[in-house]
Amino acid sequence: MLEQLIKIVDEITLSEEQRESLFLEIKAIKKKLEVAEFKYNRTLHDKAAITNVLNASIKEIEKQKKNIEDAKNVIDRNLAELDKQKKLTEEKNVELNEAMTILKEAQEQLVQSEKMASLGQLTAGVAHEINNPINFVSANIKPLKEDLAEIMQCIQLYEQAITENKLETFFEKVEEYKNKTGISFSIEEVKSLLRGIEEGAARTSEIVKGLRNFSRLDQNVVKKTNLNEGIESTLALLHSAYKDRVEIVKDLGQIPEVDCLPGQLNQVFMNIISNAVQAIPGEGKIFIKTWATDNLVKISIKDTGPGMSDETKKKIFDPFFTTKDVGKGTGLGLSISYGIIQKHNGKIEVESVKGEGAVFIITLPIQQIKNEKLNTL
Questions:
Q1: Which among 128, 264, 284, 322 could bridge 329 via Cys, Cβ 3.0 to 4.6 Å?
Q2: Which is it for strands 223-225 and 258-260: parallel, antiparallel or unpaired?
Q3: What percentage of the chain has pLDDT greater than the value 90?
Q4: Confidence check: pLDDT of 307 > 50
């Protein structure tokens, strides 16, 4: 292009001075063009370099981004695994705590069962030792009363003979002695003492019968049992705890015999009735009712105590829960009773309103299907 310009200038008629000036301008323009071309080429080169650097940076950023995402995925997986392990640990802890609670309850029930077995042997032995002498007393009361009646009849005949034969003057000293000693009062006192001995012997026989029925050395054998007898035996044993304070109102129906472990059910009756007696602060009543419905027997034990709150009702069968003062209750009685009824395939329920007493309702099947749980009580 420059050569073309020079050729064009040569063809133009110019003075040397003008020609020289024009050539200088053309050279200056050429130099500017060269500088511009250099700068342009340099710019293109720098642009390519910058583009390469940017591309490399973008690739590195994408690579780092991928590494970060991979690391994040690894962390997420690890967190998920940790969360899973945490949940498994928590579940295991819950299972372990439940197992510990069941084990502790079973241990306490076993200890209580051993105590009841030992108590059964002891009470059976005591009942046997008391039974013989009390039978001797009971057996002798009737002939003693008959002998006394004969003696009284003889005395009356003597008095009748004295009156009929007008022999009073011969028996003045006897009459004086009778008046002095108050023989009539002594005779009535002897009769009263005999009645007291008879009542005491009957009461003792009832207690002995209660002891023998309650202890039931065959308690680990499933057998047909009249639950009314178990209730009566329990009341006999608890008589001293409620007499003169709590009235027992019984409505024991005609119920069939139930397949059960009688000693274990007697323990349930003892726990519930004893709690009812203790729940009544002063005088009150306990209503005990039994009845049969369909293939079930039901026992209701209601007291006129202070009742319980809904919160207490929810916990009443929990092991070691008690509303009694420290040292006056272990909190195991109702828990063990609940377990015994469950193993008899029955149920035990409580109904109560604060200030209106409480009622426990026990439901038991009359017949037990083969039950491994029952046989291992």
A1: 322
A2: antiparallel
A3: 12
A4: yes
Q: What is the CATH topology of the domain spanning 220-377?
A: Heat Shock Protein 90 (3.30.565)
Residues 172 and 166: their CA atoms lie apart, in Å, by 12
Q: Which residue has the tokens 């009712």?
A: 289
* DSSP E strand boundaries for the chain: 223-225, 246-252, 258-260, 284-293, 296-303, 347-352, 358-365
Both tokens of 201, joined, read: 């012997």
Which tokens hold the place of 238? 């608890």
Sequence letter at residue 136: F
Measured in degrees and rounded to the nearest 5, phi and psi for residue 158 equal: -60, -45
User: Rounded to an integer, what distance in angstroms lies between the CA atom of residue 106 and that of residue 93?
Assistant: 19
| Burial (CB count <10 Å: 0-12, 13-18, 19+), residue 204 | middle
Percent of the chain with pLDDT over 70: 76
CB 334 within 8 A of CB 315: no
pTM value is: 0.49
Distance CA 278, CA 1 (A): 127
Q: Considering only CA atoms, which of 275, 291, 288, 124 is closest in space to residue 210?
A: 124
The residues spanned by each domain of the chain are 220-377
Burial of 263 (0-12, 13-18, 19+ CB in 10 A): buried
How far apart CA 131 and CA 198 sit, in angstroms, is 15
The yes-or-no verdict on residue 36 having pLDDT over 70 is: yes
pLDDT, position 299 = 94
350: CB partners within 8 A, 6+ apart: 308, 313, 316, 358, 359, 360, 361
Res. 292 pLDDT band, cuts 50 70 90: very high
What's the pLDDT at 291?
94
- The Cα–Cα gap between 320 and 205 comes to 36
* Alpha carbon distance, N-terminus to C-terminus of the chain: 120
